[in-house]
Write a structure and sequence with these properties.
This protein is an alpha/beta fold and about 250 residues long. The chain contains eleven helices and eight strands. Strand 7, helix 9 and strand 8 (about 220-225) form a beta-alpha-beta unit. The protein is globular. Bound molecules: pyridoxine-5'-phosphate.
Amino acid sequence: MFCMSARLNVNIDHVATIREARKTIEPSIITAAVICEQAGANGITVHLRGDRRHIQDRDIELLRDVVTTYLNVEMAATDEMLLIAERTRPDAVSLVPEKPNEVTTEGGLDVIGNFDVIKNAVERLKAAGVFVSIFIDPAAEQIEAAKNAGAQQVELCTGEYAELTLGSRAMHGDGERRAAAEVERIRTAAVHARSLGLIVAAGHGLTYRNIAALAAIPEITEFNIGHNIISRSVFVGLSQAVREMIVACHLGKP
Ligand code: PXP
């Protein structure tokens, strides 16, 4: 049986982005996590990047103590990151690709091209009792490679869908058709991943405006959403921004 509604993990990286802009102590990532949980989020997601541009090592340790729902840490499959995960043991690790100068994660991890490294990382994380998700493009061969590497979950990259639905793009020219085709690509991937026994998450660039079509896909049982929620929180407060996204995640469900 599928869940009737998908879980929402709020990615709070950009609370730390504001803090790191001044290398100071506020806004508190811990306060942010607690507010998200109290507003009904099912979990907290953070990305510990190699360049430490937002989340810091200490944040992971503090969040591990404070988060009572579900702590999902995104990281590259490097020895440095795996040691941190083995020590702090978040509930889940999502393996993601990382390029030094990228503004944000650019597409999914190439599991096929980095199979041995990823399989080894998955084994280490599972041995430490950590649930393992791999962030991949919605492509059958990557899903199968993630399964063969031992992942328990795949997170389908919605970056392409986010690009196609940005602003009014989906309303012009063949924008609507292209966005609908991308939804179908994601749906097909989600069905395929479920058929292999994988749990299916989705994330990247999702917003209050574009999530409904994906929320209607029953195979997707988790969303990881950050930038849009934190952006809205500037104007309406974090608690309300989270509550609105929870409603948006549920709207597509039958
Ligand atoms: N999922 C993954 C794997 C990511 O790397 C990110 C960005 O850190 C997100 C979800 C959240 O993306 P956004 O901030 O665009 O909602």
